[in-house]
Description:
mainly alpha, elongated, VPS54_N, SNARE binding
Amino acid sequence: MMRFTTTIHDQAYAVVADYVKKSGEDTTDDHNLKAPYASLCKLVKAEYFIPCLMEVCQVFWRIMFCYKEVKEWHNQGGLETQSESVDWTFDRSYVRTKLENGLLRVWRDVQQKVRPYILALDMSHFKYDDFIRVLDIVNRLISIGMEFCGEGSSSLQDSMRQQSLNYFKNYHRARLEELKIFLETEAWEVCPVRSTFSVHQLREFRFIIFCNVSKILFTEGS
């Protein structure tokens, strides 16, 4: 079990460190070499974020697959022996139980490596397609985790929820700035209307009437 835990940690660190080198960071510096995993994740530049995430997830998928294979091998009997002693039967039962309980441990170790990586970068300036791609990768990993041990990942979902809120908040702010520039530079002309004209007469704004009526009824009812 410890071998899988160690492999998850070492492989994640190695992949991220490799992309930090590609990002042009000086990983020969002792400070960077000894940096905690979460700090190392912050050194990956935006253009390498998705390739690094994909490679990290692929490494984890292979580790989880290997763990499943080991578990299935033991469930099917492992090494066949002619003598079925009490001690041997007990040992096999113990190993199977440990491997079954280890499914959650492996999956949670994976989450502990993916979560800080997701939160290490501000994705608010990503292109829309790139951001959706990150969502797809993380959701696919969560689906694999569910199939692996029957447990989803609220921590990864919360991480992507934080990034999504930040992304669309920035997206809306940018669109409002564009709209402001458009309104300020557009050549406007006065439109002749009747003196009885109201904005509520426009189909696009009729919902305002219903909203106001509903608000009044709700206030009176309470």
